[in-house]
Backbone:
C-alpha cells in the first residue's frame, strides 16, 4: 500500500525527538518517579509486582508523568512533590491499560503479549484495581485535596469515556462529536490532569492552571487521533500492538468516520457489514483501506490532529518562556509523527 | 440434607434484627446517603446509571454505609460530613462486586442475575472503575486527607486480597492463616475503614479510632466466614446467589479447610480432584457435604466466626455507651445468623 508509506515519510523525522529531549532534561527527576513506581507496585502477593512489572517495565515513553514533571518545572514549582503525582498518573494510565486489554480482548501491548493473555483476565482486572488504589495513596501524599479532586475527576471521566466507546463501537451512525467526546474522555482527560496538577502544585493563578489543562486536552486529542490513524496505516513493529485491531473490533475512529461521511450506498453497506455487524472476511481490511484512501480519510484525520496540536501550542502562549515551554511546544508537533 | 436445616434453625431469629433497628434509627441519614448515591451514579453515558442502578438498587442491607454513619453517631460526630463517606464506602463495595462477578464468572448476585451476564463483562469492568473513581471524588468532598489515606489504603488491600484469593483458589494446601489473610483483606478491610472513618471524622483520639477499626476488622472476618459457610448450607432463596459456587470454583474457604485438616488419604484425593483439579461430577457436592459434616467443619467455621464476633464486641468496651454502641454490639452477634 504505497499511500501509507508516503504518509509516514511525510511526517517529521523522529530522531532526537522533543520527548526524548524532555526525558533527558528530567532524567534525575524521572529516576525518582521510577523508584516510586517500583516501590508502590510492591506487594507480598507475588502476582501483583509480577504483572505490574511486566507492563510498566515494558516501557512506553512515560509521556504522562513527563508532562506532570514538565508542568511543574515550567513554573519552577516543587519538583519533589511532583514525583508522587507523576507516579500516580502513570499508575492510573497502567490500570486503564490493563482493564482496556481485558475489555478489548487485545493480543498485544507495548510490543509484547498483552498481560491478560499471560496472567489471565482476572488478574488483569484485580491488579488494575490495585494500581488504581495505589495511585490514590500516592496522591494523598501530595497533601493537596485540590489535586486529588482533579485526578479523581479525571479517572471518572476516563471510565465514562471507555463506557461511551463501548456504546459507539459497532454503531456506524456514530457522529464526529460523539467520537471526540470518547477520545477527550478516555485519553485527553488524563493528559489534561497530568498537565494541570503541575501548575496547581506550583500555586499558579487559575488562568495558568486552565491553560495547562487545555494544553493537555488538545495534546491528548491530537495524540489519540494519530493513534487511531496509525491503527490503519502503521506497520506492526512501529505500533507495538496489533494493526487493524480497531477495524476488527468495529471501533468508530477518525479514519472510518471520515470515510463514512462521503460514503456511497455500497460503501455504507460494507461498513455496516464489517463494523456494524462484525461480519468480516480476510480481504475486508484491504477494501476498508481503499475506501479510506478514496475519501482521503487518513489525510483528514491527520489534519484534524494538527488542528488540536495547534490549539495545544496556542495555550502555551502566555506561560513562562524557557526550555520547558519550548519542549512542550515541540511535543505538540511531535505527537503528529508519533511512532511510539 | 437434614443437617443444614438444623444449623439454620439453631441460629437466632432474624426478625427485628439490630441491623434493621440501626437502619430505622439512621433512616433520615440513610436517605441523605441514598440521594448522594443516586446523584453520583448519574452520567450522560446512559449505560452507567443503568448498570449502577441495577446493582445498587437491588438492595443489600447497606451494612457498610450504616457502619460509617453509626461510627460517627456513636461519637456524636458531624453526620452531614459522614454522608459522603458512607456513599463512598458503598461505591467501593459496589465496584468490587462488579469486578468480582467478572472475575468469578458469577451467575447471581443479590437475588438477581449478575450484572455482567446482562450488561457484559466489559461494561461491568468499566462501570466498576467509574464507581471507584466517583468514590474518591466523594471522599475529597469530606475534606480530610487522613480519611482519604484510610480509604485508599483499604482499596489497595481489597485488591491485594482478591489477587491473593486467585492464588489460593484450587490450592488445597492453602493454610488457615492464608485464608484469614484473604478474608481480612477482601472483606474486613472495608468494614474496618467504614468504622474507622467515623471516629476520625469525629476527631476522636487514636485509641478510639483504633478500637473502631479493630471492631470493623473482626466484624468483617465474622461476616465473611459466615458468608463462606452459607455457601455450603444455605438455600438459594436465602443466599440470593448460587449455592455451592465456592465449591464449583475451587475456592479454599473455612468449611473446606476445616474438613481438610482431619481428612484421610481418600478424602484428600477427593478434594484434590474436585477443588485442586476442578474435575467435578454432579454427586460431588453431596460427597463434599458429607465430609464437611463428618469433620464438623460447619460447626467449626461458625465457632471461628463467633470468636471474631466476640473480639469485635470487646473492642467496643471503652467506647461511649448508648444506643449506637449497643446496636453495634448486637450486630456482631447478628452477623452470625445472617441470611442477608
Residues:
Amino acid at each position: 500500500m504505497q499511500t501509507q508509506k508516503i504518509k509516514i515519510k511525510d511526517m517529521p523525522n523522529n530522531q532526537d525527538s522533543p520527548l526524548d529531549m524532555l526525558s533527558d532534561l528530567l532524567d534525575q527527576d524521572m529516576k525518582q518517579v521510577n523508584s516510586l513506581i517500583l516501590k508502590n507496585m510492591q506487594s507480598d502477593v507475588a502476582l501483583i509486582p509480577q504483572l505490574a512489572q511486566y507492563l510498566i517495565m515494558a516501557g512506553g515513553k512515560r509521556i504522562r508523568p513527563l508532562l506532570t514533571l514538565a508542568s511543574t518545572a515550567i513554573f519552577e514549582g516543587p519538583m519533589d512533590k511532583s514525583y508522587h503525582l507523576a507516579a500516580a498518573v502513570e499508575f492510573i494510565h497502567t490500570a486503564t491499560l490493563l482493564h482496556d486489554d481485558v475489555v478489548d480482548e487485545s493480543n498485544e501491548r507495548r510490543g509484547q503479549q498483552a498481560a491478560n493473555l499471560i496472567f489471565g483476565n482476572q488478574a488483569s482486572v484485580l491488579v488494575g484495581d490495585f494500581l488504581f488504589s495505589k495511585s490514590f495513596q500516592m496522591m494523598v501524599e501530595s497533601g493537596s485535596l485540590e489535586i486529588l479532586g482533579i485526578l479523581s475527576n479525571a479517572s471518572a471521566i476516563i471510565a465514562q469515556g471507555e463506557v461511551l466507546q463501548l456504546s459507539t463501537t459497532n454503531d456506524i451512525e456514530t457522529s464526529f462529536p460523539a467520537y471526540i467526546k470518547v477520545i477527550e474522555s478516555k485519553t485527553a482527560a488524563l493528559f489534561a490532569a497530568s498537565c494541570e496538577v503541575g501548575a496547581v502544585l506550583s500555586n499558579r493563578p487559575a488562568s495558568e492552571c486552565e491553560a495547562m489543562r487545555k494544553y493537555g486536552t488538545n495534546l491528548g486529542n491530537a495524540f489519540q487521533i494519530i493513534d487511531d490513524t496509525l491503527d490503519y496505516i502503521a506497520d506492526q513493529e512501529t505500533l507495538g500492538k496489533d494493526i487493524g485491531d480497531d477495524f476488527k473490533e468495529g471501533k468508530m475512529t477518525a479514519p472510518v468516520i471520515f470515510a463514512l461521511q462521503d460514503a456511497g450506498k455500497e460503501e455504507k453497506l460494507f461498513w455496516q457489514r464489517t463494523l456494524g455487524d462484525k461480519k468480516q472476511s480476510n480481504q475486508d481490511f484491504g477494501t476498508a483501506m481503499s475506501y479510506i484512501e478514496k475519501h482521503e480519510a487518513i489525510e483528514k484525520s491527520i489534519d484534524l490532529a494538527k488542528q488540536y496540536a495547534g490549539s495545544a501550542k496556542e495555550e502555551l502562549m502566555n506561560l513562562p518562556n524557557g526550555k520547558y515551554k519550548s519542549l512542550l511546544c515541540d511535543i505538540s508537533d511531535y505527537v503528529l509523527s508519533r511512532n511510539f
